[in-house]
Amino acid sequence: MKSPLFYAKILLFGEYGIIKDSKGLAIPFNAYRGALKTTDNFDEFSKKSNENLRKFYTHVANLNSDLVSFDLVTFQKDLDNGMYFDSSIPQGYGVGSSGALVASIYDQYADHKITVLENLTREKLLKLKEIFSLMESFFHGKSSGLDPLNSYLSLPILINSKEHIEPAGIPSQKEGKGAVFLLDSEQIGETEPMVNIFMDKMKNEGFRKMLSEEFAIYTDACIEDFLKGNITSLFANVKSLSKIVLKNFKPMIPDAFHKVWKNGINTNDYYLKLCGSGGGGFILGFTEDYQKAQESLKDYKLELVYRF
To answer: Is 114 helix (H, G, I), strand (E, B) or coil?
Structure first.
């Protein structure tokens, strides 16, 4: 079968905040991708993927929503013919592995699908997000639908609020010293337990106040700086955000990285922030001098995302 590629995504800013309706900025990340394929000779990976797709098929078949319907006959037939999701996107790493899968299933089997080629009005974007939220809830229990939306459109997306999302133009990359990078924690993170910890913290008035008065304000400032290319201001705001996350989101940062996180803030060699829900997977890094950050973090695996 011929199926298009769907890419990983990186939520540059807005992790956890978007659950509570503050801003976010997500970009596609082409280094990791996935596509639906068929085989008549299963190996361990494709067999497991086919089994998981069958469970997902049951979820999709039982959605019972006016928003979307699927060609379930073809979907079932393709599963019987050995369909699997061939993906290089690491699972539990905060870069949208389930999002790319959801996008590919919608693209392949949704009836009357909204396509990337048509005029994407705000209504259409919100409808897509809602459909993807229903579909992706199979993986996380609760989903914003943003990961599949990002993967499906393959465009940067600016989240102004739950009801206001739009494609965003981000500045083209420069050949400068600065960079956004991924730091591999070499641990798998699970979304649901992390979101549960966050929801528990939200019962605390002090935490809610910090979220609206500090976290959201610096997140919004970072997004504005990034989109406008205000690099000096961006790094000052990212540093503040990194401090806030270290202080208030400790359970979401793997223990082994508390020291590394603090070291970046103290030396200004790099600043770290959560990538997705945290708890493992990738950690997102920002640096004004990528070479210096590489030297500071020489014991870890880094991957370049964007150059300033």
So the answer is: coil
Cα separation of 297 and 269, whole Å? 9
Range of the structural domain that residue 103 is part of: 6-167
The reply to whether 172 falls in a domain is: no
- CA dist 71 and 178 (Å) reads 47
Which H or E run contains 166?
Answer: strand 164-167
Beta-bridge mates of residue 183: 283, 302
> CA quadruple 22, 91, 4, 108: dihedral positive or negative?
negative
Residues 6+ apart with CB under 8 A from 104: 3, 4, 6, 34, 35, 36, 85
Domains in the chain: how many in total? 2
Sort 232 into a burial class: Cβ within 10 Å, 0-12 / 13-18 / 19+.
exposed
Nearest to 185 by CA among 272, 262, 87, 245: 272
pLDDT in tens, 230-285: 999 999 999 999 999 999 999 999 999 999 999 999 999 999 999 988 899 999 99
- Distance (Å, rounded) from C-alpha 190 to C-alpha 179? 27
Q: Taking Cα atoms as reference points, which of 8, 306, 289 lies closest to residue 171?
A: 306
Do 157 and 44 have their domain in common? yes
User: Does residue 242 share a domain with residue 155?
Assistant: no
Q: What's the predicted TM-score (pTM) here?
A: 0.90
DSSP 8-class letter at 18 = G
Q: What CATH number has the domain bearing residue 49?
A: 3.30.230
Q: Among candidates 218, 226, 269, which has minimal Cα distance to 247?
A: 218
